[in-house]
Structure formats: structure tokens, C-alpha cells
Amino acid sequence: MDRSVNLVVDGHEHSLSVDPRTTLLDALRDHLQNFSPKKGCDHGQCGACTVLVDGRRLNSCLLLVLSQDGAEVTTSDGLAAEDDLAPVHRAFLDRDAFQCGYCTPGQVCSAVGAIREAADGAPSVVTEDLEARVDLSDDDDEIRERMSGNLCRCGAYVNIVAAVRDAAREDR
User: 70 and 107 share a domain?
Assistant: First the structure.
């Protein structure tokens, strides 16, 4: 028996009727034809499906869409203004932080979340001073730790770290 769920995805309201077992990832891709988040491992291990849910980065393959009723979901596509790329998008392009591009939408959403978390003062495992504000614009160890949930099979990590650093500088 299908259930109703309401979502705001990339600024647009949607009412869906879904099987209760439907994940947020499958609702986005199969019901809303939003192919920005990718289905990689489908087990929350690769990060290809990362989206922002009410501003927090989450693996959409692990979330039942019914548990997100009323949530605001932002995919990589929703970060850009109409004809203008978001700063993270620009940084990824400028730094050539992708090869095949499959993981890029998840990497971009994760980068936005990581930059916000650091700006809000959330420490990571490698944060030395828990009282100080973390500045991702000059701390590659912090970036690597915060982005560690997003895998890139092509190995573009050096450029991804540089892109996140650049986006964090612009966000300051």
C-alpha cells in the first residue's frame, strides 16, 4: 500500500505516492527523474548519493523517503542559481576535480556540507583545537577527513581537496 510524502527538492515542492520501502535516492531518481545523486554501492559506503537534507549532508540511499516527509532536499543540481554555478561547482571545474564525474554530485554536496560544518564549529576526528574555528581553506587534513565518506574510483582526490580548499576560501 503506497503512502504519501511531501518533499521540497531543489526549491520545488513535490507530493509523491511511494511504497514505504522506497529510499530517498530511489524517490529522487525513479519518481522525480532527478539523476544528480547517483546509486553507487546502495549501502552508504561510497557517498555517490550524498544530498543535503535540511542543510545536512546525508547518504540518500540509507534514508527511507517517508522519514523525510516535509524535508528540504538539495541535490548538486539545486546548488546552482539559474545560469550561475555555485562556488563549489566552479572550484571543481577550475581544479579539474573529477574524471569520469560519477561521484562528483555527491562530492559537491559533501563539500558544501563539510564547509558549513566547519564554519559552524563542528570538529572532526583530526581537529586539534576543539575550541578554535576550523578553517578548511588552509587545512588539507581536515578536508580529507571530512570528505572521507565520498569515494572516487578514478582517484581525483588531490584535485578534490584543492577544490574544497578553494570553495572554503570563497565561502569565508
Answer: no
- Indicate if the pLDDT at residue 129 is higher than 80: yes
163 and 93 inside one domain? yes
Cα distances from 145 to residues 32, 110, 157, in angstroms, run 32, 12, 12
Q: Do 66 and 45 fall into the same domain?
A: yes
Burial of 102 (0-12, 13-18, 19+ CB in 10 A): middle
The pLDDT tens digits for 146-159 are 999 999 999 999 99
**51: pLDDT strictly greater than 90:** yes
Spatial separation of the C-alpha atoms in residues 139 and 127, rounded to whole Å: 10
In angstroms and rounded to an integer, the radius of gyration of the C-alpha atoms of the chain is 16
Q: Which residues pair with 57 in a beta bridge?
A: 52
* Structural domain count, the chain: 2
Euclidean distance between CA atoms 121 and 131, whole angstroms: 8
Give the C-alpha separation, 15 to 63, whole Å: 17
Give the model confidence (pLDDT) of 112-123 as tens digits: 999 999 999 999
User: CB atoms < 10 A from the CB of 153, how many?
Assistant: 12
